[in-house]
Design brief:
- The chain is an alpha+beta fold.
- It has 10 helices and 10 strands.
- Helix 4 crosses helix 7 and helix 5 crosses helix 7.
- The chain is globular and about 60 Å long.
Length: 374
Amino acid sequence: MLPAVGLLAPVRLLLLATCHITDATCIRRPPRFPALPEPAFWSRSTAFSKALKVQGGRPPGNQKIVGGLAYGCGVDIENAVDDLDAGASFGVAGDPPAALSPSRASDFMTCPLLYRFRVIDRIPEPPTPATARGTLVHAVLERLFDRPAAERTPAAAADMLEPEWGRLRDGDAGLAELFAESAEEERTRFIADAHAALAGYFRLEDPRRLEPAEREWYVEAELASGLRLRGYVDRLDVSAAGDIRVVDYKTGKVPLEAYEASALFQMKFYALVIWRLRGAIPRVLQLMYLSGDGEVLRYSPDEADLRATERKLEALWAAISRARDTGDWRPRPSRLCDWCRHKALCPEFGGTLPPLPERALPGQARAAVASAES
C-alpha cells in the first residue's frame, strides 16, 4: 500500500529572505514541522507558506557577489541540471549565446571559464552514471503519468525502468557507451540506484492523486531588456482554483545548507519565466529529493522575489556580455574544481587553454550579434 502523501517524508519550508536593496539571498532554517498532507499545499496559511522578510544576506567569507549570488560557491554540482543543449541557441562553437538557462547561469556564477568551456567552446561532456541516473528517473516519472491514475504504482514504475533505459540508450550514443567497457556489476549498481530513487519518489507523494498540467515542459520568455530565459520544468501542477505549483525532481543528495539558495535560484528562475508567460506567480516551488529517505523543500515566492530574481539575471547577463566582449573568461578556483570535467584544461591546475573559436574572439562576438540582428 502506498504511503499517504506527505505524511512519511520530511518537508522543509524554507524561510528564504531576499534583501531587495542588494538582491542578496540568505536562508534561515525553520524548525522541522511535521509534514503536511498534500491538500495543505493549496492552503493560504501564511504561517507556513509566506517567506520571512529580513535584511542581510552576505555570503560566507569574502566571496564576490555576481547577480546577487555568491560568486564561485554555492552551486550544487551533484544536482546540477544536465541541459547543455537546452541553455541557449548556440549554433556553431563561438556563436554568442542567445538565451540563458538556470544551469548556465549557475555555471557562470561558479566559474566563468566553466561557462566558456560549455557555452562558447562547446566541449563535449559525456554522461556519467550520476547524470544518466537522473535522466532515466526523470523519464520514468514523466511517462508514469501517461498511465491511468490507478496504475501509477511503485511496481509499475519499477517495470518501466529497464525498457525506458533501453529507449534512452537507443537514442543517445553517449548513454549507449556509458557501460560498454564496465563490469556488469557497475551497470547492475546503476539500475539498483535508479530503482532506489523511484522508491524514494513514492515515499514523498502518491501520483495516483495527481494530474499534472505539464511534464518536461519547455518554457521560454523574453524580458523587457531583450534577455531570453529558457529551460525545462519537470512538472507543473495547477489546482482547481488556478494556483500553480512548480515541481523539480532531484536524484542527488539533499543539499547542504550552503547549496539551498542555489537550488531555490533555479526554481525562482522558472517561476519568473512562468510569471512572464502566464501572468500568474506560482504559489509553491517544490524540490523533491529522491535519494535516501527523501525530502521535500517548498518555498512560496512573491512578486518582490521574482523582481529581485530578474535583476540578478540582468546583472549576470551583463557580466557574461562583458566577458564575451573582452575575452576575459577567468577561472574561479573553489572546492567544486574537484568535480570539474575540464580541470586538465584549466590554467589554475597547469592546463593550457584551447584558443577561443574565431567567432568568439573579442570584437567578433559583437559583430556576429549585429549581423544576426540585421
